[in-house]
Amino acid sequence: MSETQAIQQTGEAGFGDFLALLKPRVMSLVVFTALVGLIVAPVPVHPVVGFASILFIALGGGASGALNMWWDADIDAIMRRTQGRPIPSGKVAPGEALGFGLALSGLSVAMLGLAANWFAAAFLAFTIFFYVVVYSVWLKRLTPQNIVIGGAAGAFPPMIGWAVATGGVSIESLLMFAVIFMWTPPHFWALALFMKDDYGRAGVPMLTVTHGRKATRAHVLAYTILLIPFSLALALSGIGGWVTLGVTLILNAIFVFGGWKIWHRDEATAEADSYRVEKQVFRFSLSYVFLTFGALALDMLLGTRWPMAWWG
Q1: Other CB atoms within 10 Å distance of the CB of residue 306
Q2: What's the top EC group for this one (predicted)?
Q3: 175 lies in the same domain as 186
């Protein structure tokens, strides 16, 4: 009997299994965008307060992941991409995941309030609620717009980082939100295209299931185009600059070209080359947000920001 089989039979979870519940790859995006939102804000934050705040935002993001895995354990067991997750693989019991997620949620919100301010803490609490209840429980299994509306949860972290520094919301933080919000649908629909029948088997009404793959391809292209004005507005805002503008123009050109290639293909062609283009666009989309927000941080560090937003 292998060690993995023994773990699955005994249900004895290790540190790595609970870490996996936090969705570390997703958490990396949460942490990075929240950090950028914090450091580009006009109000300086003490390094200790900033470090603690990002840590608690990360814990809140991880709590959301754990609660999402608890709720989605039934469909995770059906989908090939998620069968190895801690709950469907038998490494973590559902009750353990639920308790872990709830404990981290309460801890992260309370500690962010104490470390920074209660507006940011309330924003984090709302984000956890939105991801778990609005997206996971309600929208995901109800409508093909699940990833469009639910994508707001992944777009809130830079606003929380900004709120840590400023105690509020501004046009700049809303633009950071808008870029991630508009990026999320083509990112996930590119994934859905090469995941083939996973969502259909699990009964998740992803756009590929409800409207077909041809319509999904058109939506990918449409959203890569719709992303352009929001990303340009962010680049031309008071927290943008020459670096952000240049990076934004290059990234959008590549993303739209990728969306056009996806739209231009039929299923026979995609199947023949194992969905090579769709996988390329998905992988590129992962770097889109990191590079965009990294450019914002560089403009701030290099002093290449605009003296003021171009529209004001």
Answers
A1: 17
A2: transferase
A3: yes
Q: Whole-angstrom Cα distance, residue 161 to residue 158?
A: 5
| DSSP state at residue 305 | B
CATH value at residue 137: 1.10.357.140
CA–CA dist 102, 64 (Å, integer): 9
Q: Please count the CA atoms within 13 angstroms of the CA of 120 that sit on its side-chain side.
A: 32
Q: What is the CB neighbour count within 10 angstroms for residue 115?
A: 19
- CA pair distance 299, 294, nearest whole angstrom: 9
- Given a contact cutoff of 8 angstroms between Cβ atoms, the answer to whether 33 and 289 are in contact is yes
Query: How far is residue 40's CA from residue 162's CA, in Å, rounded to a whole number?
Result: 8
User: 20 and 36 in one domain?
Assistant: yes
Residue in this structure with the two tokens 């814990």, named with its chain if needed = 59
Calculate the alpha carbon distances from 61 to 16, 31, 243 in Å.
17, 8, 29
Residue labelled with tokens 């062609």: 269
Nearest to 58 by CA among 10, 12, 14, 26: 26
3-class secondary structure, 204? coil
Per the structure, the complete domain to which residue 230 belongs is given by 170-312
Number of structural domains found in the chain: 2
2-61: per-residue pLDDT in tens?
333 433 444 567 888 899 999 988 889 999 999 999 999 999 999 999 999 999 999 999
Quick: pLDDT tens for 139-151: 999 999 898 998 8
